Amino acid sequence: MRKKVIVLGANFGGLTAALSVKHDLHGDVDVTVVSDRDYFLFNPSLIWLPFGKRNSSDVTFRVEPTFDKGDVDFELSAAKGIDPVSQTVTLENGKVLTYDYLVIATGTRNRGEAIEGFAENSHTITTLESAIKTGEAWKRYLDSPGDIVIGASQGASCFGAAYEFLFNTSYQLKKAGLRGKVNLTYLTSEPFLGHFGIGGMPHGEAIVGKFFKNQGITFHVNKSISTIDDGAITTTDGDVLKNSFSMIVPPFSGQSFLKELAGLADQNGFVKVKDSYQTELWDNIYAVGLAAAVTAPWKTPTPIGVPKTGFPTEQMAHVAAKNIVHQIKGELPSVTKAFADIPAVCILDAGNNGVLILAEKMFPPRKHGMLIPGPQNHLFKLAFEKYFLWKMRNGKITLP
Ligand SMILES: Cc1cc2nc3c(=O)[nH]c(=O)nc-3n(C[C@H](O)[C@H](O)[C@H](O)COP(=O)(O)OP(=O)(O)OC[C@H]3O[C@@H](n4cnc5c(N)ncnc54)[C@H](O)[C@@H]3O)c2cc1C
Q1: 345 occurs within a structural domain
Q2: Which is it for strands 88-91 and 79-83: parallel, antiparallel or unpaired?
Q3: Would you place residue 313 in the very low, low, confident or very high pLDDT band (cuts 50, 70, 90)?
Q4: Among 99, 251, 260, residue whose Cα is nearest residue 188
């Protein structure tokens, strides 16, 4: 009988894992993707959406045609429970699906409730809906400009997005004739500028610091936010940053239903995995991308998370898919790739400039690691967006 693989989530990790299993077994497997939304979202472009440089349709595509073409079934519903004994997943729409192998790629949810006033008074760009709302707030801001605070809270992990939004805000202020007339401040839980949640890079602090200096951006590192009021952010050590507009990347957690299965997830709902991306307790359940728990080899004075960006997410999905293929063929799941050893590849966009981050492994100590600043990086980012959306829409998951 053909084996059944269920993949929860249809974005970077889920789409890659589902199509890879199908591809590697030459179609001889039943794959079903379950997702609570019917579209793929290229999250990296959310840094541009609030400034009107992108709209929803520019950064999304419907996933069903992509899965149809790849002979993968698609079920539009949220998963709400996993039973590893009966090997079933229960969905919000009432269906119960059975699996031989399960891949969890359900990303994160904003844990805004960890900060008083976050939901009511702050803006963020970590979801399509929140980026659209931030765009509406930005329009209101331009009618009545004042000081701005952009930041990443304690427990946040998506620092790249905070930096990119900061630099893009600076660029937009310049275009609006407001640079130098309003204060732009970066507030972060990172222990130093350019830590990025990956321990920093050689000369990184100095290069990022130069960007800040050139653009007149002030910064506060190693900060926790205690409250966000309408017009002011207060840190736990008593700083009050008044503002007319703010964007804060909140802490993330895994999806709530993952915590209901004892032993699956850590206290924040991230799924505990081995280097094969199999879960610690169940060899036929995998987790990849943002949903997977990753532990950093350091402790920072203010707690921060580790960014699981697009590149490592795809790598984890390929490793999981290869191991499922091994298991289906009756072999041992022998492919491993520790998160710490996956290369770091990221472009930080700055509106008309940018920084390319490259390192041969995610966590130090590293042999090679560099930041390459320059306007070419903005063009790289634009090209990357077009290429990646084309690649995913067309299911070309074997391409780099
Ligand atoms: C603003 C921003 C900018 C970023 N910029 C970059 C960048 O420049 N470069 C880079 O490499 N990375 C960037 N990232 C990170 C990148 O987006 C993530 O690495 C990537 O999205 C991780 O993919 P994922 O599949 O693990 O999770 P996600 O992309 O979050 O996908 C989760 C999927 O699970 C689904 N889902 C959620 N709950 C359920 C449920 N209960 N049942 C079924 N399905 C469910 C969702 O609908 C979605 O399909 C950025 C992220 C943000 C937010």
Answers
A1: no
A2: antiparallel
A3: very high
A4: 251
pLDDT number for residue 33? 98
**262 shares a domain with 246:** no
Q: How confident is the model at residue 390 (pLDDT cuts 50, 70, 90)?
A: very high
Cα separation of 211 and 350, whole Å? 10
Distance between CA 151 and CA 321 in Å, rounded? Answer: 36
Residue entry with tokens 């079934």: 73
pLDDT score of 24: 96
Based on the number of CB atoms within 10 Å of its own CB, is 57 exposed (0-12), middle (13-18) or buried (19 or more)? exposed
Number of domains in the chain: 2
395 lies in a domain? no
| Average confidence (pLDDT) over 48-68 | 98
User: Quick check: is 346 catalytic?
Assistant: yes
What residues contact 241, with CB distance under 8 A and at least 6 apart? 147, 149, 185, 187, 220, 232, 233, 234, 235
| 53 in active site | no
Q: Do 84 and 125 reside in the same domain of the chain?
A: no
Report d(CA 170, CA 166) in Å as an integer: 6
Q: Judge if 69 and 145 occupy the same domain.
A: no
Question: Helix (H, G, I), strand (E, B), or coil: what is residue 280?
Answer: coil
* Residue with tokens 């100590």, as numbered in its chain: 365
| 137 and 207 part of one domain | yes
- Residue-number span of the structural domain to which 297 is assigned: 4-109+253-339
Residues 210 and 226 reside in one and the same domain: yes
Distance from the CA of 152 to the center of ligand 1, in angstroms?
17
What is the tens place of the pLDDT at every residue in 337-365?
999 999 999 999 999 999 999 999 999 99
The pTM assigned to this predicted structure is 0.97
Question: Distance, CA 32 to ligand 1 centroid (Å)?
Answer: 19
Let me know whether 268 and 300 are in one domain. yes
Instruction: Say yes or no: CB of residue 346 within 6 Å of ligand 1.
Output: yes
| Domain membership flag for residue 384 | no
Does residue 356 fall inside a structural domain? no
The CATH number linked to 229 is 3.50.50.60
Q: Are residues 301 and 232 in the same domain?
A: no
Helix segments in 124-245, DSSP class H: 128-143, 159-175, 204-214
User: Which residues is 30 bridged to in the sheet?
Assistant: 4
Catalytic residue among 33, 131, 346, 371: 346
